[in-house]
From TrEMBL:
This is Zinc transport system ATP-binding protein. It comes from the Bacteria. Belongs to the ABC transporter superfamily. Residues 232-272 are annotated as: Disordered. It comes from Blastococcus saxobsidens. GO terms for molecular function: ATP binding; ATP hydrolysis activity. InterPro entries: AAA+_ATPase, ABC_transporter-like_ATP-bd, ABC_transporter-like_CS, Metal_Ion_Import_ABC, P-loop_NTPase. Pfam families: ABC_tran.
Amino acid sequence: MSTTPAGGAPVVELRRATIGYGDVAIVRDLDLTIRAGEAVAVLGSNGSGKTTLARGLLGLASLLDGEVQVLGARVGGLRDRGRVGYVPQRHSVSGAVPATVREVVGVGRLARLGLLRRLGRKDRAAVADAVAAVGLEDRMDDPVASLSGGQQRRVLVARALAAEPELLIMDEPTAGVDAANQQVLAGVLGRISASGTTLVVVTHETAPLADVLSRAVVVDHGRLAYDGPLAEAARHDEPGVHHHPPARERSGYRLDQPTVTTRPRGAAHEGH
Ligand SMILES: Nc1ncnc2c1ncn2[C@@H]1O[C@H](COP(=O)(O)OP(=O)(O)OP(=O)(O)O)[C@@H](O)[C@H]1O
């Protein structure tokens, strides 16, 4: 289990941050500090704004108000892109370009070097290590398109690991990965967390990563509904449980977004 380093330098800092698309606010008024070495789960029901929050940290969603700083720089202003790794959601590697596992993961390493540089011996070793870390070393020279969806997700994890990022943001890394390989991934994330990398993991499945993630934030209707130990987060990770007043303004929410603010205890979990 990772501990929460109280004194680590802030790696992610949001101050009253409102993040969205175009001029539509999705995540609202969020205050959050994540310190070096922390491993934080981002939980919440479908459509609550978890991915938007993650994308906001990367400058892929718009900051509409407030402030977001990542590794001490304003969002989008970080010069060395390789310091922040990202595993996007529901994304498999495009089959249109016939690339091998080694090549796709090598591109991740280039983020660290700058696109005009070539991979040296140390870089090729980092690529091999990243592929081995996700248990795909025997598929190194296979076309990525020939891998299963779950294996392709592991390639994307390796691509992010290859840059040896200080902050690794992952959007549902265990989705579509079978139980045995979820264990493999949990081991990988545990090791990189132990080495000091800060982890932010959007997930619906906390069980496989329970030994890795110590802290959780729950996003509910774009607001922070809980911030504390992962073990206590489950009861807050439900649609309709509000620890802040519900947003008055509903524009920007999905039409299928549950709007109930109370639900019977023990009711089936919705939206998954
Ligand atoms: N590119 C986009 N442009 C406009 N609205 C978007 C865009 N991406 C997401 N949204 C909207 O933002 C809201 C939050 O979506 P988001 O993907 O952040 O939720 P989530 O909590 O990650 O959901 P899930 O658990 O289903 O992945 C939804 O209403 C969604 O329709």
